Amino acid sequence: MKVLHLNAGNETGGGMVHILSLLNQFNREEFYLGLLEKGVFEQKAIGLGIRTLTFEQSSRYDFSVLSKIINFIKKEQIDILHTHGARANLYGYLISKFTDITWMTTIHSDPRNDFLGRGIIGNIFTKLNLMVLKKPDHYFAISDRFTEMLVEFGVSRNKISTILNGIDFNQKTKSIISRKDLKLSQDDFVLLMVARFDPVKRHELAISAVKSVLNSEQNVRLLLIGNGPTEPSIKEYVNQQGLEQHVIFLGYQENIADYFKLADVGILTSKTESFPLVLLEASRERKTVITTDVGGVQKMIPNHTYGLILRDDQVETISAAIKKTIELKKTGELGEMGARFYHYTASHFSVEAFAESVYKVYKQTV
């Protein structure tokens, strides 16, 4: 069996972590990673020893890359093409027209929100994305909600495998960044949000909630890790709200574990997610999380003793959750909640179980 995973290559968030974690578990002789662009993704894959090909698309509209991929598939006698993301899915659809390959895709996000805030072009891309998503031979949905979403789109349920994400809980990291390095005091209550700057992540909700909390708690700090198209507008929003001393932009960071180690709580305010790996990464560092009720988070956080799932996405609800975690820190219960979260996720969402489930689907198909 030979499998080619295909992604645009410009991913640096949960999608990249998902693909690299999966491929790192597999036999190197059976799997290839194909990328359309050079960048961090390519560097990390090569560093892990994953067989990586970068087809070097000159722009996202350079369709000459298709012939390169098709020739590679035929030469290497690839059995399965596994695509990730809207661009890769479009090429998967076109490639399937010229080869007899089995085409699979993983649904990492709600395709209706992949191009939010991009005007007419975004609307066109959304319609094209939804059309293409009805064509694969098999689907991996990484939450029950995404399975039901695909069924609503008209996908046959027997073509969908629901497989929840997993990470390597045995990964050990030494902290090389301290609060002092970021000019934070030990008395500061530190929230960490790791998310690309995109409309679907709704950074302004977390920022507005922090502003509300500051009316009663002056030592709250929000760290933002990531980059993306909405970063300039979010920075402007922070300045308008006079929160420059309380909201800290850290850009893209290679090792987010260091930042979770120094934070008190992880926070996620997304409009949609699948099964957010960033929450598992927080749990690995034994940190409590505050999250909107998206994707499969209810599987990850089975009740309020493991973390805080917001009942709605209102600023007042988010600020109330932040205040609650501040009180839990004062009583010593926040650390206990984080440890409980770690033990639950480590026993249910290991990368080994995740990879084994995916591999089993491959074998049943070929």
A few lines on this structure:
The chain has 366 residues and is α/β, with parallel strands linked by helices. It contains 14 helices and 13 strands. The chain is globular, with a radius of gyration of 21 Å.
Describe what you observe in this structure.
The protein has 366 residues and is of the alpha/beta class. It has 14 helices and 13 strands. The protein has a seven-stranded parallel sheet, sandwiched between helices.
**Alpha-beta classification:** alpha/beta
The helix tally amounts to 14
| Coarse shape | globular
Helix content: 40-55%
List keywords for this structure.
single chain, 366 residues, alpha/beta, 7-stranded parallel beta sheet, 14 helices, 13 strands, globular
Describe the protein's topology.
Layout (H helix, E strand, L loop, with lengths): L2 E5 L6 H10 L7 E5 L4 H8 L4 E3 L10 H12 L3 E5 L1 H11 L5 E6 L11 H14 L5 E4 L2 H9 L7 E3 L26 E6 L8 H11 L6 E6 L5 H10 L6 E5 L5 H6 L2 E4 L8 H8 L3 E4 L5 H4 L7 E2 L5 H17 L1 H16 L2 H15 L1
Parallel strand pairs: 1-2, 1-4, 2-3, 4-5, 5-6, 6-7, 8-9, 8-11, 9-10, 11-12, 12-13
Helix pairs in contact: 7-12, 10-13
